[in-house]
Write a structure and sequence with these properties.
Strand content of chain B: 15-25%
CATH topology of chain A: Sufe protein. Chain: A
CATH class of chain A: Alpha Beta
Shape of chain A: globular
Structural class of chain B: alpha/beta
Largest sheet of chain B: 7 strands, mixed
Structural class of chain A: mainly alpha
Number of domains of chain A: 1
Radius of gyration of chain A: 14 Å
Largest interface: A-B, 15 and 15 residues
Shape of chain B: globular
CATH superfamily of the largest domain in chain B: Type I PLP-dependent aspartate aminotransferase-like (Major domain)
Mean pLDDT of chain B: 96
Low-confidence stretches of chain A: none
Helix content of chain A: 40-55%
Distance between the termini of chain A: 28 Å
Number of strands of chain A: 2
Largest sheet of chain A: 2 strands, antiparallel
Helix content of chain B: 40-55%
Oligomer: heterodimer
Mean pLDDT of chain A: 87
CATH architecture of the largest domain in chain B: 3-Layer(aba) Sandwich
Strand content of chain A: 5-15%
């Protein structure tokens, strides 16, 4: 939805995940999200846009339009792609201010936090940090 | 040869009864570290409970006891590797430190501009980077012995790589990625014809096959305790007496000192010359217990069982569509490293974990091998004496489910 707040989107994701009783269903859902993530345009799939700290490759591109940030991303691993897809769904289309100040509680409530520890090589931490970093940069440019 | 009783062996490792996500743990990451039998855990416990004290210079009872136990551990390792002297066994933190010790001190004393050191293309970063750094520092050249599509090296190529300026050959006994068991005895023979010393990285060999340094005639042999069912943080550098005497000290302080004035210091004799600071006493004791444990099972039994597991897994892997195994050497250690066509190693590992299966994914600290095969990473299942065919069955069953989910 166009005018949902970040937290409304987070709650929506939490509700979607609450329907899965089995870990397998949850992962099937993430994999499915990964398969359907709109692809990043090839010109942005460059080393400069790679996020460090992931065992899989993750590219993120941020565009700033009319006060809002729009993210696109890709990964060579499908689970990572699904996870970054969830992050983008939550944060894309919001102002830098909103993104910087958001607490991403859905990660914990969906059980995705098991991927959050810095030692986990999929680097969800690194992804969150990178998305917020983009927002921070746009925020600073504006002020 | 005693009988190989798998259930009895497994009963020594309580961790194997653990449940991961409510599923029985299937531990296939033994090339990274092995689990510890009760005897090792009890040794550590007993040391800290009733024996703890610092070794060597204490004149009181406890310190004498601890010193005796520590030096007894050295004797056990010496016998285990069939070294000639106890002082040829240096306790280190592990294989990486053992190699760094030799790379650093050897290059200081013997490596000059224009010299070269030979390694193989299948080395772990730990047996690559220390030599690369030493060569960079001394403007020497690092030469790389390639391997073929099966993961085997060509001894004729080795002879061609050797020249008058070759100062040392450093090669792994068993590849942690490809599983290749290298013909180290032949390599040592060739090198010694030209009076070139050889360092063997034994990290992946030590738990799987009998290592006899006198028979091999290697100049240095390195391994880690934790890959031999022992504790982490303890490892061994075996070096021939003549070489260890020729090398300068690596670190300074503590037991490695003989006499100090503000102007001058003389160093202690072997092995203390290379054991600066307080030793990992409990680690050495734990490692000695691990060695006793492994010897009580017997390498003949271990090799037979692990080869059966390898053959079984290799055969089963042929039933999986798109599965490619890297490393098909004739003489191979008990691990399979693979990719599945179109799938990412990270996805496979993440989902196998949910079945309670521990495998390693990524580059296994051998990035050059990934470059050679042009992949970003692989999946590795590595077996130990306590693994079973039933676990391998469950692994392939789960792998099939994982592939279905990802495709």
């Amino acid at each position: 939805m166009e005018n949902q707040t970040i937290n409304q989107k987070q709650d929506e994701i939490i509700e979607e995940f609450s329907m899965f009783e089995e870990w397998m269903d949850k992962y099937e859902y993430i994999i499915d999200l990964g398969k359907h993530l709109p692809l990043i345009s090839a010109e942005y799939k460059i080393d400069n846009n790679l996020i460090n700290g992931c065992q899989s490759k993750v590219w993120v591109h941020a565009e700033y339009k009319e006060g809002k940030i729009f993210f696109t991303a890709d990964s060579d691993a499908i689970i990572t792609k699904g996870i970054i897809g969830l992050l983008i769904r939550t944060l894309s289309g919001h102002t830098p201010e909103e993104i910087v100040n958001t607490e991403l509680y859905f990660i914990d409530k969906t059980g995705l936090s098991e991927h959050l520890s810095p030692t986990r090589s999929n680097g969800l931490t690194a992804m969150v940090k990178q998305l917020k970093m983009y927002a921070m940069v746009f925020k600073m440019k504006n002020s | 040869m005693h009988e190989f009783d798998l259930n009895n062996i497994r009963s020594n490792f309580s961790i194997l009864e653990e449940k991961i996500y409510n599923k029985p743990l299937v531990y296939f990451d033994n090339a990274a570290t092995t689990q510890k039998p009760h005897i090792v855990i009890n040794t550590l416990d007993k040391f800290y409970t009733v024996k703890n004290s610092n070794i060597h210079r204490g004149i009181y009872y406890l310190s004498q006891q601890a010193t005796d136990a520590y030096e007894k551990a050295r004797e056990i390792i010496k016998n285990f590797m069939n070294a000639k002297h106890e002082h040829e066994i240096i306790f280190t933190r592990g294989t990486t430190e053992s190699i760094n010790l030799v790379a650093s001190t050897f290059s200081k004393a013997f490596l000059n501009e224009g010299d070269n050191i030979i390694i193989s293309a299948m080395e772990h970063h730990s047996n690559l980077v220390p030599w690369q750094m030493a060569c960079n520092e001394k403007k020497a050249k690092l030469k790389v012995l390639p391997f073929d599509e099966n993961g085997e090296i060509d001894l004729e190529l080795l002879s061609k790589l050797i020249d008058f300026n070759t100062k040392l050959i450093a090669i792994t006994h068993v590849s942690n990625t490809l599983g290749t068991v290298n013909p180290v005895k032949k390599i040592i023979e060739i090198a010694h014809k030209y009076n070139i010393p050889v360092l063997i990285d034994g990290a992946q060999a030590i738990a799987h096959t009998k290592v006899d340094v006198t028979e091999l005639d290697c100049d240095f042999y390195c391994f880690s305790g934790h890959k031999l069912y022992g504790p982490t943080g303890i490892g061994v550098l075996y070096g021939k007496e003549e070489w260890l005497n020729k090398l300068p000290p690596y670190q300074y302080g503590g037991e490695m000192i003989d006499r100090v004035t503000f102007e001058h210091t003389t160093f202690n004799v072997l092995p203390f010359k290379f054991e600066a600071g307080t030793a990992h006493i409990s680690g050495a004791l734990g490692l000695a217990s691990a060695v006793n444990f492994v010897q009580s099972i017997g390498f003949e039994n271990i090799e037979k069982h692990e080869t059966e597991l390898l053959n079984y897994a290799t055969k089963k892997s042929q039933e999986i569509e798109g599965m490619r195994i890297y490393g098909n050497a004739q003489h191979k250690a008990s691990l399979i490293t693979f990719t599945i066509e179109g799938l990412h190693h990270f996805d496979i590992g993440t989902l196998l974990d949910k079945f309670g299966i521990a495998v390693r994914t990524g580059h296994f600290c051998t990035q050059p091998i990934m470059d050679i095969f042009q992949v970003s990473g692989m999946v590795r299942a590595s077996f130990a004496m306590y693994n079973t065919k039933e676990e391998i069955d469950f692994f392939f069953e789960s792998l099939n489910k994982v592939i279905k989910m990802l495709r």
